[in-house]
Fold this protein.
Amino acid sequence: MGSRVKRISFSDKVYALCKKIPKGKITTYKIIGRELGRRGQIYRAVGVALNKNKSKSVPCHRVVKSTGNIGGFARGVNVKIKLLKKEGIMIKNRKIVNFEKVLFRF
DNA sequence: GTCGTGACTAGCC
DNA sequence: CGGCTAGCCACGA
């Protein structure tokens, strides 16, 4: 009976979590990695996964650095900032304002 | 099976 | 406060 093989890769899990992020909130690469249950600094792989998935089907623009910096974006950091601002996130100097207030924890 | 890359993080001066 | 280095993980060729 168990012919249901879920070939879910690490990257796929990252996308799933990104979709879980509510509008107006953001998260960090570290938190995502931590939710995946892996030990160590896997946040590096998280960025790589999102970078390859430049599809807008995933709100990956809601993911920022743990330091509150915007980080990067496959379409351009400028676009990322604009999207976040539209969601209600305040950004100044490429940094998140009230970072802890808009930070979403799983 | 091995090597290199990348949207990161923390520590140090 | 600001900038730089080293370390770690997953994926592709």
